[in-house]
Amino acid sequence: MPPLPLVAVVGGGFSGLMTALHLARAGTVRVRLIERSANFAQGAAYCTANPDHLLNVRAGNMSAWPDQPDHFARWLAQRRPEAGAFASRGEYGLYLQGLLATAAGADGRLSLAAGEAVGLTPHGAGWRIDYARGQAEQVDAVVLALGNPSPAAPVGVAPEVTDSPLYHADPWRLQALNNDATKAPTLLIGSGLTMVDVALSLARSTPDRPMLALSRRGLAPLAHAPTSPIEARTPPASASPAALLVWLKSEAQSQGWREAIDALRPHTQAIWRGWNRVQRARFLRHARPYWDVHRHRLAPEVAARVQALIDSGALVLLTGRIESLTKGPEGLRLQWRPRGKGQIQTLEVGHAINCTGPAATVSAHQDRLLDALCSQGQARPDPQGLGLEVDGDGRLIGGDGAAQHRLFAVGPVTRGAFWEITAVPDIRVQAQRTAQAVIEALRA
Prior knowledge:
- The protein is an alpha/beta fold.
- It contains 15 helices and 16 strands.
């Protein structure tokens, strides 16, 4: 009897893990889950051990399985009966690792490979994967689950600063700040969810060092309501960005802004896919920052901690843009222009941390495999440049405009097609659908 087809899933974060689990669950294929960091089932989001880092979605909506909506809530209740509505991200990482361990030990159809895939070449009806260390293997289908890109380099940061130990380009690899005697404030570049995580971490590790969070609009994430939202009306299915804004304002006045945003959630992808290129570009240019702070909200406990830091003066939010960040006499010198003002101000800071969050465009996604696929014409950026272009089933679109044979993508790299594809409730559904599309492609 011939061996079952082999599917490679490149990327061991949530999107890759759940795609691999759905494929293995089907029982008709073998699955190889490939992760270059060897940190399977966690990624940057769920490897934190800081108890202050809570999920941004209630535990009741964080099940990994679409057909078992209370799966995580039951797991959490058995592990920690006193848990609140929002679990820690570290706990969620343990939950995912448990799912992986169970599947990997079940029947041998799911295997793990620690290594970096750097190239894909068509091979017969499938693909050859080339690894950074020189190995290669043949598989029948590939799913790319590359996760979120690293933060893009902020404008105005001098090369002498980026090479300095006082500048931290990747907030997820942040080491303890030097215990220098200046006690100069730490500059957090950005004011979104990444800034919140870093501020909470620094408040524990260096509580005597003040923090300055600088962003162009000064928008910080808002908080969830203490209780679950009520159900709001269904939004118009084919609304333009302008018409949708009118609906949101009306719904926010009658039901509340949280209820209005939450009512959009089941329909966001369909609305986005119904917009043309001009409408999508208009939304990204004018509304994206405001959408992000209202849509991706903080647990009430986290919001309270951040507000306490602000009230005490430990965290100061600044609105403006960086003109330059250079070496100073004892640390770094920041020249920035407050929003709406012409005069440049100067501040001395001890450290600077890039908290701008995942890069907004695929061009900033520093991934050797992605670069190789685009340069060889096997993939291309979507029209908005948010990620890779895919069809409705997640098949990559090549440079010639045709869907690739047995080559798929899931997760944030597909946000140009689906927009809302960063949170667990969205990705778990996509992973299930993509796994089914892979199986059907292999049958064909």
